[in-house]
Specification:
The structure holds two protein chains of two kinds.
Chain A: H1 40-49, H2 63-76, H3 101-106, H4 113-133, H5 155-158, H6 178-185, H7 187-192, H8 196-205, H9 210-215, H10 221-231, H11 253-271, H12 275-294, H13 298-319, H14 333-342, H15 344-360, H16 368-401, H17 407-424, H18 428-448, H19 457-479
Helix pairs in contact in A: 8-10, 11-12, 11-14, 11-15, 12-13, 12-14, 13-17, 13-18, 14-16, 15-16, 16-17, 17-18, 17-19, 18-19
Chain B: E1 2-8, H1 19-28, E2 33-40, H2 43-47, E3 57-64, H3 82-100, H4 107-127, H5 131-136, H6 138-148, H7 155-158, H8 162-175, E4 194-197, H9 204-214, E5 218-222, H10 226-236, H11 241-261, E6 264-267, H12 270-279, H13 299-310, E7 320-325, H14 333-346, E8 351-356, H15 362-378, E9 394-398, H16 407-413, E10 416-419, H17 428-435, E11 440-443, H18 448-452, E12 457-459, H19 464-476, H20 478-495, H21 498-515
Parallel strand pairs in B: 1-2, 1-4, 2-3, 4-5, 5-6, 7-8, 7-10, 8-9, 10-11, 11-12
């Protein structure tokens, strides 16, 4: 029930008409105009040739001017080879002005001869009409740009071939091959698509219907999508180099200050010889921070281990009958404990550094193995960095507070740091298990102390924490180089 | 009959497409029992609350397909053991290989592997638990990677990098969450007589598992093409190409498996049907069921139009065009304004009233503003005489304003109703205009031709001239307009009413239940002897024998909001 189209008096005459005699006008010259002798054969060859692709030799008579035009147009055509290699064969020599034979050739390998025959018929139709219309100076403007319509160019209806929707008075604007309008109008969408389905969905969402596709001689939008997928080269894939804003590898000042708090409290109270209450405060503060980090049972075990570090050696000695237990006199352990709590700050920095550096390796890595290889040295560097900082702190503490065993606090620090890394990267249960094992071993030492096995508290702590730290480190080297451990931004 | 209604992102949540349609279906089939199994697509879906559920909805189960994976509180505390992980690796490798494709696999082989992987993963979830953790874990990443690096896989996937692997695995985990939902026991989906997925794709996933584990037949209804939506959403979300390729394949293979397993597929229009056929749905099991629209709101306007037509139709003094809808660039109001300009040249007294829906978002508001500007430029205010106050022939009115308190009034205000869209799915406003008995001129987009049949004029899209001529034809020929309006009303009442849609589904339910009964009891005993009368036909009653209690018998977790 389509209403009649515009009548000739409504023909839009807006397009500025190029002056007579521009290159290529002769192609459109109708039979009623006398053609110059060198152009007549090419015209005849066009209408007779239909969709055949070999345009080379029949252009021979057209003169160098025409060939130049055709060549220029040809250069504009995007290369038709898709990534999967099914390039549509194309008769490039047609230039942009021959209305329909181009389509017949462009249509891709799946097109049959039947359609081609239909096309050649409609080609004659269009040319004859154009010839009648173009009386005198009006040469058809060549539409280089897209049509007015963003999806189907205005050339579309003129290709209908049936003539029902075609106004004989309308000169064709836009390219001779209306599929090029589609390709141009949706260039980015098509170039970025990964398959035909995405293009079909995108075209439909932008208003291209099956009716439009039929006007372009396709069965439906899927057919059109297949053609443009084959003809538009895929966009050059820009490797995802991660988000534009680079993450800072260091924690914020607030986080640093928070981690500094227990160390400060502990140092101050150790300085005024109120070691035990201060240490308790520090342990409480540290526990609060660890709760945020480990989010699980790990914090409890960490607290217990710190408690053993504080009072363990003295308690073991007292239980073995070698002295009395005085929680308010911790001796030289106070200074090293303060150093241990102060090492929360380098631990926070090393954790954040490792998390950010490992995540930065996600985008450049091309495989899981490559990623793991890149992460392992960084994990070793984080562990070594923290170990070094802890060693310096402990050395400074013994320098200030007098000689004291540092093996126990050092191994405990490494154990807690490794557990923290594991917990932050999604393995809190593994971390808690390591800490719990160390706690159990220390409880055994306490229980066995009355038997006087000759194992001092500090030595036992160093052995136990060292073994646990080693075990957790082995797990860390197994687990943390996995990409799944670096999924989202990890909380510190 | 006990029906499990499987939804995704819609019913019973108030926001989301399909909610109103599902509500009409459930209310229209009060003699059946409904269990609603809803997948929510985003936090926005849940934030908008739920619709009030009628008493025949016995239980509501929900599962989230967004946000972080369910924590340890949801999953069993113990991680799956060695055998569980081995089974997971095997099945996930199948799934990943099907997603990655490759030249070595044919289409059928691919669908086979996909189904094997999917059901295998569901078995892992049922037997070992902890599927969410496994889907996020290293095993899944390694399986995806090796599938993408397999021989014959397209280069786009072969070049996948670790970030893309992580994204793809995380999104797949969200999509596969229904696998670990505790819905597949004998008391849940196993107790249903049939599953009705009211959209394709993810909503059909529980139905597929129910069919696999409990033998419950599945009906898939689609009013919008879920695969197409998913593809567009992936594109809009700016996902990396490799991720889009994998997820697009997932949605396509899932849809295909849904169509293959369903005993009945009911597309809502030819457009949907075409996509379904493209995805591999069999024609023999398809039945187009148009969405039902509540005709009662338009009954008064329709009867008035009938009465008007019965009296001798005369050319109106001020011929009025009406447009009703949500302002959107796809509606091409600009073409309508240009068409109206052409109409005014021929018919200087003509008026155009544009009725837009309330609650427009920012996009449509800015488009409307743009159109108002154009209308002001094209049509200056006009007055009857030198002392009268002028008025523009084009008016923009909101539905709910005094000029049109109801949509029906808006349609009734026009002598001809125009639809000028350049793109359209199922044109609801056209159906409503048909209910009101108005003659229509519409553009040939989407399902317009299918909806209007021969009862209105159809012109090509983006052709204001044709639109103007068609509208003029109707404005000048009141007899023809009245005839077309009456025919349109007849057609709409015959095809697009709620009753029609509900009847279609009532028949479908009964046919499916009759032809595919769920065998809960074995028909043969252990010795191989037949057990007569284990499943008599009377055990499945098409109607409810006991009166419906006012309160749902089984309270859902969170409970239906009443």
């Amino acid at each position: 029930m389509s209403a009649a189209d515009s009548t000739p008096e409504h023909t839009p005459e807006r397009t500025p008409l190029p002056p007579a005699g521009i290159a290529g006008e002769s192609i459109w010259r109708g039979p009623d105009r006398p053609a110059s002798p060198d152009q007549a054969p090419s015209r005849a060859a066009d209408s007779a040739g239909g969709g055949s692709a070999g345009g080379g030799q029949r252009r021979d008579g057209a003169g160098p001017r025409l060939l130049g035009v055709a060549g220029g147009r040809r250069a504009e055509l995007p290369s038709g080879a898709g990534p999967d290699g099914n390039a549509s064969p194309r008769g490039g020599a047609f230039g942009g002005r021959t209305p329909d034979p181009v389509r017949g050739v462009l249509a891709g390998p799946e097109r049959g001869l039947r359609e081609r025959a239909a096309l050649s018929g409609s080609s004659g139709y269009a040319q004859g009409e154009d010839g009648q219309r173009l009386s005198g100076e009006a040469a058809p403007p060549v539409g280089d740009g897209p049509g007015r319509s963003p999806h189907v160019g205005p050339g579309g209806p003129s290709r209908g071939g049936g003539g029902a929707g075609v106004n004989p008075g309308v000169r064709r604007r836009g390219p001779a091959d209306p599929v090029r309008s589609v390709m141009h109008g949706h260039r980015e969408m098509i170039a970025g698509a990964v398959d035909v389905w995405e293009i079909a969905a995108g075209l439909e969402a932008r208003g291209v219907t099956d009716a439009d596709a039929r006007r372009l001689r396709h069965r439906d939008v899927f057919g059109l999508a297949e053609e443009v997928y084959a003809r538009v080269p895929r966009a050059v894939r820009v490797a995802d180099r991660g988000s534009g804003n680079r993450e800072r590898p260091w924690p914020s000042a607030a986080t640093g200050g928070l981690n500094l708090l227990p160390g400060l409290v502990c140092t101050l109270t150790a300085a005024v010889h109120l070691a035990a209450p201060g240490a308790l405060l520090a342990v409480a503060a540290g526990w609060a921070i660890l709760r945020r980090t480990a989010r699980g049972a790990g914090a409890v075990w960490a607290g217990a281990l710190l408690g053993f570090a504080l009072c363990g050696p003295q308690a073991v000695a007292a239980l073995a009958g070698h002295g009395s237990f005085n929680a308010f006199h911790l001796g030289r352990g106070g200074a090293t404990f303060a150093a241990l709590t102060l090492s929360l700050v380098p631990a926070a920095y090393a954790t954040q550094w490792f998390a950010v550096r490992a995540r930065a390796q996600l985008a450049p890595s091309h495989g899981l193995a490559e990623f793991a290889d890149a992460v392992r040295p960084r994990l070793a560097a984080a562990l070594a960095g923290y170990g070094l900082a802890l060693f310096l702190l402990l050395t400074a503490a013994t320098g200030v507070g007098g000689p004291a065993p540092i093996a126990g606090p050092a191994t405990l620090g490494l154990l807690l740091f490794t557990a923290r890394l594991l917990a932050v990267h999604g393995r809190p249960r593994l971390a808690a298990a390591g800490l719990a094992a160390a706690c159990a071993a220390e409880a055994l030492v306490l229980a066995a102390a009355p038997l006087r096995l000759g194992l001092g508290g500090a030595t036992a702590e160093a052995l136990i924490c060292g073994a646990a730290a080693l075990a957790l480190a082995v797990h860390a080297f197994r687990v943390l180089p996995r990409a799944s451990a670096h999924r989202g931004p990890t909380r510190l | 009959v006990r029906i499990a209604l499987l939804t995704e992102g819609g019913y019973p949540y108030a926001r989301g497409e399909g909610g109103a349609w599902c509500d009409r279906l459930v209310r229209g089939l009060g003699h059946h029992d409904f269990d609603v199994y809803a997948l929510s697509r985003s936090s926005r879906t849940e934030a908008a609350g739920r619709v009030q559920l009628p008493p025949q909805v016995r239980r509501v189960r929900t599962e989230r397909m967004w946000g972080a994976p369910p924590g340890p509180a949801r999953t069993p505390s113990r991680a799956p053991g060695r055998t569980g992980r081995a089974a997971f690796r095997r099945h996930y490798a199948d799934l990943a290989a099907a997603l990655a494709g490759g030249t070595a696999q044919g289409a059928a082989d691919r669908a086979e592997r996909f189904a094997a992987g999917l059901y295998g993963l569901a078995e892992v979830a049922a037997e070992h638990g902890g599927l969410a953790g496994l889907l996020c874990g290293e095993d899944a990443l390694a399986a995806l990677e090796s599938a993408c690096r397999a021989a014959g896989v397209r280069p786009l996937l072969g070049d996948i990098v670790v970030t893309e692997l992580l994204t793809a695995a995380a999104l797949l985990e969200q999509q596969l969450r229904p696998l670990s939902a505790p819905w597949y026991g004998p008391d849940e989906l196993g107790a249903a007589d049939l599953c009705h997925a009211v959209s394709g794709g993810p909503a059909a996933l529980p139905g597929l598992l129910a069919k696999r584990f409990c033998g419950t037949p599945l009906i898939v209804t689609e009013y919008t093409v879920r695969v197409r939506e998913a593809l567009l959403a992936h594109r809009a979300a700016g996902l990396a190409p490799a991720v889009r390729a994998l997820l697009g394949e997932y949605h396509r293979l899932l849809a295909a498996e849904g169509y293959r397993q369903a005993v009945l597929v009911t597309p809502g229009s030819t457009h949907v049907r075409r996509w379904q056929e493209r995805c591999g749905a069999g024609r023999e099991r398809m039945r187009t069921v148009y969405p039902g629209i509540d005709a009662s709101r338009f009954a008064r306007a329709g009867e008035a139009a009938e009465a008007e037509a019965a009296a001798a139709p005369a050319t109106p003094a001020d011929p009025t065009l009406a447009w009703v809808g949500r302002p959107d660039p796809a509606k091409d109001l600009i073409a309508l304004l240009h068409a109206f300009r052409a109409i005014r040249r021929e018919e200087p007294r003509a008026r155009l009233r544009i009725f837009h829906l309330r609650g427009a978002d920012q996009w449509s508001a800015s488009y409307l503003w743009h159109c108002r500007g154009l209308a002001a430029q094209l049509f200056p205010d006009e007055a009857a005489g030198p002392h009268a106050v002028g008025e523009s022939p084009v008016s923009f009115e909101e539905i709910g304003s005094p000029g049109a308190p109801e949509p029906a009034d808006a349609y009734a205000a026009g002598d001809v109703v125009v639809l000028s869209s350049s793109a359209e799915g199922f044109p609801l406003s056209l159906v409503e205009a048909m209910f009101c008995g108005r003659p229509t001129v519409s553009t040939d987009v989407g399902a317009v031709r299918e909806v209007i049949g021969g009862t209105g004029l159809v012109v090509p899209p983006r052709n204001p001239k044709a639109l103007a001529e068609a509208a003029l034809e109707l404005l000048r020929g009141p007899e023809r307009a009245a005839r077309l309006g009456a025919a349109a009303r007849e057609r709409a009442l015959a095809l697009f009413t709620t009753a029609r849609c509900v009847d279609a589904f009532r028949e479908s339910y009964l046919a499916v239940v009759a032809q595919h009964p769920v065998r809960r009891e074995p028909l043969w005993d252990a010795a191989g002897d037949p057990r007569p009368f284990t499943a008599p036909a009377e055990s499945v009653s098409p109607t409810r024998l006991a009166p419906t209690p006012r309160v749902p018998a089984t309270a859902a977790p969170g409970g239906p909001h009443r």
